[in-house]
Amino acid sequence: MNTQKNNKPSILITGANGLLGQKLVKRLIEKGSFEIIATGRGACRLPESWKDYTYASMDITSQEDVKSVFTKFKPGLVIHGAAMTNVDQCETEKEACYQQNVAAVQHIIKACEQHASYMVHVSTDFIFDGEDGPYDEAAKPNPVNYYGETKLLAEELIQQSNINWGIARTVLVYGISHDMSRSNIVLWVKNSIEQGKDLQLVDDQLRTPTLAEDLAEGCILMAEQKAKGIFNISGEELLTPYDMAIKTADFFKLDKSKINRTNSSTFTQPAKRPLKTGFNIQKAKTQLNYQPKSFNEGIDILAKQLNLAN
Ligand SMILES: NC(=O)C1=CN([C@@H]2O[C@H](COP(=O)(O)OP(=O)(O)OC[C@H]3O[C@@H](n4cnc5c(N)ncnc54)[C@H](OP(=O)(O)O)[C@@H]3O)[C@@H](O)[C@H]2O)C=CC1
Ligand SMILES: Cc1cn([C@H]2C[C@H](O)[C@@H](COP(=O)(O)OP(=O)(O)O[C@H]3O[C@@H](C)C(=O)[C@@H](O)[C@H]3O)O2)c(=O)[nH]c1=O
């Protein structure tokens, strides 16, 4: 039986200290309609000013940890965002990547089976090869790096399970994380130009960059509706990283001469990136009433958060 405190359904967030995790906890606190169980690896790193949620340390690679936290809280709803997300590190540390992105998901599935919890699992455009994006939900996966392989294996475990599940796929998430633990393309471009650095931006990768707050909203919509199946939860605009950099420089009135156009073939990253991804989000817009911000609106939100932070 799932727990309900003062008649509020209980929702458990994994990876709550991460970029998406923080936005989920913040939005759920604002909504006030759930009993919130925020979980993460080790100590809580959320702002001390945040109230009205419970934090529990839960290493998702530990079956014992997962079992005991789920037994204690019996969450009706779960949003599983925790993962190893450094794509290059996933290529060089495959065992750690497998444990965090695949084996851990089996522990979460088992706990959801035990407690009849509905789960939103967060996935990625990197399950595709990037040959013919943008993609809809029915497109055939074919990952080109190990991170993408593990995220696809996780999707397959979930789709073969008998739990109540939804999969939220997203793309190139940007936003401000509280302890700035994770940078992203907007901040990296802004900070680099302000430091007078020259940047090489690829113009042959296509993405639909996603504001972290929009991703959180989409996951919450799915949880509230216990939406069944796969949903593309990303931004709507198809942009290259070069386009994103120019838009960022225009917004912050920075020196665009620092932005040099290049292509992925000149890029030596340990993990191959799929070239043309990006998502068609029509299904989420019509079935979930998901309404993401434009890229420029997203940058404006980041700018306001940066001003508040400084
Ligand atoms: N960022 C992006 O561009 C995209 C992300 N996604 C997906 O979205 C989800 C969230 O990503 P994002 O918020 O950006 O990533 P972050 O790296 O910011 O957050 C991931 C969180 O998972 C936690 N985590 C990792 N391993 C464990 C573990 N063993 N036990 C408990 N927690 C763990 C991390 O903990 P700690 O803080 O201690 O490191 C971190 O807080 C991921 O599933 C990712 O695959 C999909 C597409 C794009
Ligand atoms: C560092 C760098 C990146 N880029 C481009 C490549 C890429 O499209 C974009 C972001 O680069 P990164 O390598 O930091 O990001 P990357 O690791 O490709 O981000 C991925 O993260 C995982 C978690 C996902 O699930 C994917 O959806 C995707 O968002 O910026 C440049 O053009 N020039 C550069 O110097």
UniProtKB/TrEMBL annotation:
Role of this protein: Catalyzes the reduction of dTDP-6-deoxy-L-lyxo-4-hexulose to yield dTDP-L-rhamnose.
Organism (species): Echinicola arenosa
Domain RmlD-like substrate binding: 11-305
Protein name in the entry: dTDP-4-dehydrorhamnose reductase
Keyword annotations from UniProtKB, A to Z: NADP, Oxidoreductase
Pathway: Carbohydrate biosynthesis; dTDP-L-rhamnose biosynthesis
Family recorded in the similarity comment: Belongs to the dTDP-4-dehydrorhamnose reductase family.
Classification via InterPro entries: dTDP_dehydrorham_reduct (IPR005913), NAD(P)-bd_dom_sf (IPR036291), RmlD-like-bd (IPR029903)
Segments passing through the bilayer: none
Lineage of the organism: Bacteria, Pseudomonadati, Bacteroidota, Cytophagia, Cytophagales
EC assignment: 1.1.1.133
Annotated catalysed reactions: dTDP-beta-L-rhamnose + NADP(+) = dTDP-4-dehydro-beta-L-rhamnose + NADPH + H(+)
